[in-house]
Known about the structure:
Blueprint lengths: L23 E2 L4 E2 L10 H29 L2 H4 L1 H26 L3 E6 L7 E3 L5 E3 L4 E6 L6 H11 L8 E6 L8 H8 L2 E3 L3 H15 L2 E3 L5 E3 L2 E5 L8 H14 L13 H10 L5 E9 L14 H6 L6 E10 L8 H25 L13 E4 L13 H23 L3
Amino acid sequence: MADGKHPGASGPDLAAGVNDRDVLQSSEKRVAHPSGKEGYGRLAQVLRGLAFAVYFTSCCLAIVVTQFIGAPLYFINREWFYAYMAMTKRSFALTTTAMTQIWGPTTVRISGDESVAGQIKSTGDGGVQFSFPERLVLIANHQIYTDWLYLWWIGYVNQPAMHGHLYIILKESLRYIPFIGTGMMFYGFIFMSRKMATDQPRLAYRLNKLKQKKTSPNGKTYLDPMWLLLFPEGTNLSGNGRRKSRQWAEKNGLKDPEHVMLPRSTGSFFCLNELRGTVDYVYDCTVAYEGIPRGKYGEEIFGLSSTYFQGRPPKSINLYWRRFRMSEIPLDDQKKFDLWLREQWYKKDELMEEYLKTSRFPPMAGAEAGFVETSVRTRHPWEILQVFTVVGLCGLIWNNVRRLFHAASKGLGF
């Protein structure tokens, strides 16, 4: 997210990454794609692209129509409205999960330190189950445009399921993407410009909604489930981003990490302070993609075309988790928080270096192989039909009403 600590774009760029390079260019030689040769010929790629477009557009259109059908609930009962929109948010998570399962299947290897021991377990069917709390702030390094997709899937496999309660801070321009932008506005995602002074009132307003206490019928107070996803680097890793990070480090006399960019702390500091007292933990995820050579960038290799059309998704996505108590994070002093966050990113850089050398993150206690290995997939093939349930039901009701009206008109001689 943008917060003014050093220049750069903000938020995950959902619209970019379509025209990825088929091969990496170096000054000395051409380096083959790390996922091998294209899995499909040109005709097959075109057909896959068309099928992908039909699938994704149909799902997004059904979700947006579903949202508009439920929009009047906002004026009837706000609790019903937010629950209904959470249902549509789950539909989008199902859409992207099934999309990845069909067009871009990949292995996911998950590990973590002792702070998350017992919270990540393999299931008997080769899946994974997380048991993260219902309210947390999630921070992560930003490798490629679709990091958010895999992190959203984590909410899907969490118990309780949290893919209907994820909130992301993103760039203002993304709200204007057809269908998707409208859907994200209904989801309650937070759109930001690049000026914290301008964005702070809007951010405070949205975060205040996420920390409001509710009262149950039996008189007990509670807070709605919420996972707030932040990318403190502000944008995905790229040559331009690395250059700005290096310049910022030189200007301020800081060590510049090799595999990540220096995080910007003002926005994160503001969010955590706003949510203090309503969230107990910050969960940190370090993300690495198999096959990205040292000094290269994932956006150059794993774009949408490579991942979903050419049959060359990442061979594996590797996630390393850590957990921090909010009470132990220095939230009373901006400078101390800035130092704390930067130290966490230096540790990420060390983790990324270890991954590059060994192709693995440190092993997780309790995991037989040191990690849990699974794949991005839905629990059941027919789950995707949930996306079309409300639209289909409304269509069925409308058809029956139309037929009854037509029959009544004929009976009355109209």
